[in-house]
Predict the structure of TIGR03915 family putative DNA repair protein.
Amino acid sequence: MTQILYDGSYEGWLTAIFEIYEYKLKDVVFAKEETSNTLLFSNTHSVTTDEVKANRVLNGLQQRLSHHGFHAIYFAFLSELDQIEEILFRFTAYVFASKINIERDLSRSEVLNVKKAAHLTGKESHRMKAFVRFKLTKDGLYYAIIEPDCDILPLIEQHFKNRYADQRWLIYDSKRKYGIYYDLENVSTVEMQFESNTSSSFLAEINDENEEFFENLWRNYFKSVNIESRKNTKLHIKHMPKRYWKNLTEKIPNLNKR
């Protein structure tokens, strides 16, 4: 068994796929460098991300898959499901070994699992476009904290750049400890330590003086548009799962009641 150490990036994973074929590696297991433990009785192959090698794999996949199938690989990778790298490797191996398009061969577990993983990421990114709640800081920066199941920041970046092109903003993924920052011209990736449960006193220090007023205004509006006689808790939770609530303004208690 060979342990493949890579940097955790999509380009790094693609480079690893290239080198698995290049060095004829067998029985591979993927591991991110920062969390890897050497497997007992295994060889270790370290991968240095190489754009040329990554693009060669991408070009090969693009020639053999539909537009949807090609992008499904990236979406599935971002799902971060357990053993998704191994699942995707078996999927790509099947793609390269077949003379026909294999996307509809759902009898193969790797095809079905990639399809499910891609759907999960797509659903999560769609939800995040609606569930991001910005707060305004004293220096005019709009920031939002999210904690999605999948790594969806790369997928929602363009949406928010287009929608909020006239203001500086930061969307921070507290689960993965990185965010995307828009400076009115470009979007860049930033790494920082900022917890979703940061104390209210700290937030009061950095937030604009009118932020509390507007948050409470939004909560009151949210309550006013809900018709109690038509309340359907089960349907509500289906469309707005509880795992998102701690970062939704309308689900956080009124600040004046703390």
